[in-house]
């Protein structure tokens, strides 16, 4: 049989122990109460635009603490103050340089660094597919960005750089030149290109952007004053002539040939062909199976011609293309569908014309495409 226990005597706590307990209790209450009502003033400030090309995108988080909450940030932009002139350098106008990229070419990046327009006024935007090649290109691109922006000379550093990854699968697994240019691949390939261009454009176009320069990732050689030269014409849309350097086996010397056949003036033959097409059919340029007899800017080049001579165009290519930002703001984009039987950059030219913006070309002003 268990014996009952005697009275229990509690040991008196020391003053030191009581003090430690009080301090510990206060700390616990502080963290519990303080964490429920954090101060978001810093995050609110950070969510406002850090510079004119970065509109606020961070969500506003409500405060659960007492007192009157602070209002969400409001950023004001007056587009009437954005100049788009023939002298972008003198007026310190912001340039948005956009490049869809499937492969990375070192010559492309080296050429960017040689552009004489102040790099602190240039924002770069890239979009790359989620493929093996796209992943490799992203890795190489990021290496060059880090090298330029962190350790490179200050004059080489760009205002900001944005990299996007496509949220859709590319229609072609191979990016080889021969595969890309097969006529049966053109509609799906160019529809995907249009989607990529639109995603890049709509994500990066800021309220302070004056000009948008589209430059393909395989354009590896341009004049250093490319931006100033094109903008000097003050045209809403203007394209240089894209050529390609190659080794001519007959001449046994380096030579050059036209490359981009999407800069053209329409023809009666092409207009009649379009009338006979179904609503989803598209006209393609540069293929013997679809002779349009359009006047191609690629063949308007004259060795002794004026470098700054302009011609009006009905279709444009995207190898190199300078566009006033207002043209895109008006709604001119790259249709991934048949738009008057045109698609992507040629469809963009048609859309720009429908909005009252006439595209132009420079037959004797050349940029050069990579030769695989």
UniProtKB/TrEMBL annotation:
Pfam families: Anp1 (PF03452). SUPFAM superfamilies: Nucleotide-diphospho-sugar transferases (SSF53448). Residues 47-74 are annotated as: Disordered. Keywords: Glycosyltransferase, Membrane, Transferase, Transmembrane, Transmembrane helix. The chain crosses the membrane at residues 12-33. Signal peptide: none annotated. The keyword Secreted does not apply. Its EC number is 2.4.1.232. GO terms for molecular function: initiation-specific glycolipid 1,6-alpha-mannosyltransferase activity. Belongs to the ANP1/MMN9/VAN1 family. This is Golgi mannosyltransferase complex subunit. The gene is MNN9.
